[in-house]
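For reproducibility, we list the full input for the manganese (II) ion complex.
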Amino acid sequence: MSTYIIGDIHGCADELNRLLRKIKFNRLYDKLILAGDLVGRGPASEEVIAQLMEYGDAVVKVLGNHDLKLLATHYGLAAPKKSDRTERLLRSPRAKDYVAWLEDAKFAHWDEGGAVIVVHGGIPLNWPVSQLRKQVKLLEESIAEHGYEWLLRKMYSVGLPDGLSNDFESNLIYTAQALTRVKFVDSNGLMNTSFNCAPGSQPDCLYPWYACRDVKRNAGYKIVFGHWAALGMTISDYYICCDDGCVWGGNLCAVNLDDLSITKVASDHKADA
Ligand SMILES: [Mn+2]
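The corresponding predicted structure, in tokenized form, follows.
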């Protein structure tokens, strides 16, 4: 009876299978928390979703930017890139089932037993956990009422807001973008999406979001995120990055929340882009 967190699978179905065998995952007793970017870039996004769907309630998924891109493409709101490699999934006779399954996901997941909060990108710099809860609740309630297509239409037509404002819809967009995409922030805590490099290679005016966040705001939780293959699998006192760049030729990792032990399998391919 263990809970595992797995980072960016990115359509790497074979590696996912090997990893689940290696940890002896049992859908009756164990739980998987997926830190987002289940699909995109890798060769077998359809197979990843089809397999995970079979695990029912044993799987909790958090949305990543590539998962949102898939949904936006499905709704005709974003043009698919060849490097997404999601065309087969979207044309599948089961596409609507895959989309419905992916939409039953979260922007942030609290695992109280493991004292972790799982997001895909990160948490806006100044938000205490209480504010994170509030913003995620507003976002998820709005999606429940209006649907993902409604949210994605706004996300793909409005630029990235600087931060929270008095505008309710702008705040929903900011929350969704920040949680799924943040890497670097500037000295004012504003998200900068222009740089996608490893921490340490960014311009001097930017900082990894987790490096300058006041850990008191984490309220005792470790923040677990993926999204940053160039950072790689990292465990620190307050943060865990669980993206070890499988789709780029790195590893797919599972973090066991019982003892924070890490199980890795090596990638057997690289993405084309
Ligand atoms: Mn990502």
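Residues 129-146 form the longest helix (18 residues). Residues 40 and 223 are 24 Å apart (CA to CA). Both points were considered when choosing residues for closer inspection.
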